[in-house]
Write a structure and sequence with these properties.
The chain is built from 12 helices and 17 strands. The longest helix is centred in the C-terminal third of the chain and has 20 residues, at 317-336. A hairpin with a 2-residue loop joins strand 16 and strand 17 (311-312). It is of the alpha+beta class. 30% of the residues lie in helices and 25% in strands.
Length: 376
């Protein structure tokens, strides 16, 4: 017999499945965005029901490798991070900022502000929760970002199975969702879920879902599964002050070594859940009566990214890779007071030549410093 979860004092509950949770979210007028399988990858799309989640799929992830494999059909979250992050929802890859039409007395400008949408981000991993927090810090005072962020409810999922490219623990996080969510789920081996809320809004949603109170053994079993995942991370960062390490190796031979392998394709910046750089382009029609301004994601690996009147500031691949890695792990602290990396491993998996940021940092750590000073 099931009972309704109606009070935060009831604590964690067990869900037999996710259908009721979807129904409760949608009854609040929310569109659910979550993972599903398309084109031989796990991607983020709008979901109509829980059956569209990637039940029965696992992922094989290594440097330069991402493959789907069949798994237990009862389980929806045995995969790891795919090519997309929640950045695409909060900070779209392409958006029109405004348009202008010629009028008799000049131009009529129309601002393309994002339409408010009530969304539920479903299945957000701990690393991506931290990435959303980073984006909140970096972009949160921007009107467009704030408008998208305002009406979002987050259903997080604790990781019980790390991927081969994951290193969230040494990046300062872990497989357990610590903050930034409304509801958190832990998937159990039998396909049921331990669920808990962290906000009044999440609590109100769970109150309308059929559930049974979780026992202390249920809670401990879930905690043990998450702790086991933390102990099985396949990669680590050097246990040193990375900002100091990078500042002291500006002229290191490792940059030339990685430049021989790097294609400067920008894949790492595109899949990174925290990279936020953009470029702005103005276009007009042939008559000159209509103009538009568009913002698109940009990559610091693009030769034109640092182009000034005399040419690009960073005209070598070694310089561009050094800039990206140094900003991500070093000077991001100077700008925002935190690291720009959450250890999701996407840049490792989706690099076509398998460049591994953790390996590059470990290599730098074995070399003597080449420069002195506090900042790159």
């Amino acid at each position: 017999m099931t009972t309704e979860h109606s009070s935060p004092t009831n604590g964690p509950v067990l869900l037999s499945g996710l259908d009721d949770l979807f129904t409760a979210l949608q009854s609040d007028g929310r569109t659910v965005v979550g993972p599903t399988v398309r084109g031989h990858a796990i991607v983020m799309v709008e979901l109509g029901n829980a059956s569209e989640l990637p039940y029965g799929w696992r992922t094989e992830v290594e440097a330069g490798t991402y493959r789907l494999q069949r798994g237990d059909d009862r389980l929806a979250f045995t995969h790891t991070s795919g090519p997309q992050s929640w950045k695409q929802v909060l900070h779209p890859s392409r958006q029109r900022l405004w348009s202008a039409d010629k009028a008799q007395d000049g131009f009529q400008v129309t601002d393309d502000a994002p339409a408010p949408r009530r969304l539920a981000l479903f299945g957000v991993r701990s690393c991506d929760l931290r990435a959303i927090g980073v984006l909140d810090h970096v972009l949160g005072d921007g009107g467009r970002y704030a408008a998208r962020r305002a009406e979002i409810l987050i259903v997080a999922v604790n990781c019980t199975e790390p991927g081969g490219a994951c290193f969230c623990v040494s990046a300062g996080g872990g497989p357990r969702a610590e903050a930034g969510y409304d509801i958190v789920l832990t998937e159990r081996p039998d396909g049921t879920y331990l669920a808990d809320s962290a906000t009044a809004e999440g609590e109100a949603v769970l109150a309308r879902v059929r559930a049974t109170p979780a026992s202390a053994a249920d809670v401990q079993s879930a905690a043990d599964a998450v702790a086991s995942a933390a102990a099985r991370m396949g990669r680590t960062l050097p246990e040193v002050d990375l900002r100091t390490l990078l500042a002291g190796h500006r002229e290191d031979r490792q940059w030339d070594d990685v430049a021989q392998r790097c294609l400067a394709c920008g894949n790492c910046t595109m899949v990174c859940p925290t990279c936020f750089c953009t470029s702005v382009t103005d276009t007009t029609d042939l008559t000159g009566d209509h103009a538009e301004r568009w913002e698109t994601w940009e990559s610091c690996f693009d030769l034109d990214f640092s182009n000034l009147h005399g040419g690009p500031v960073r005209d070598s691949r070694a310089g561009r890779y050094r800039h990206w890695l140094t900003h991500k792990f070093g000077t991001w602290h100077d700008q925002f007071g935190e690291s720009g990396c959450v250890g999701c491993g996407r840049c490792i998996a989706w690099c076509p030549v398998g460049i591994d940021v953790t390996a590059e940092l470990h290599a730098l750590n074995t070399h003597p410093p080449t420069t002195t000073g506090d900042s790159p």
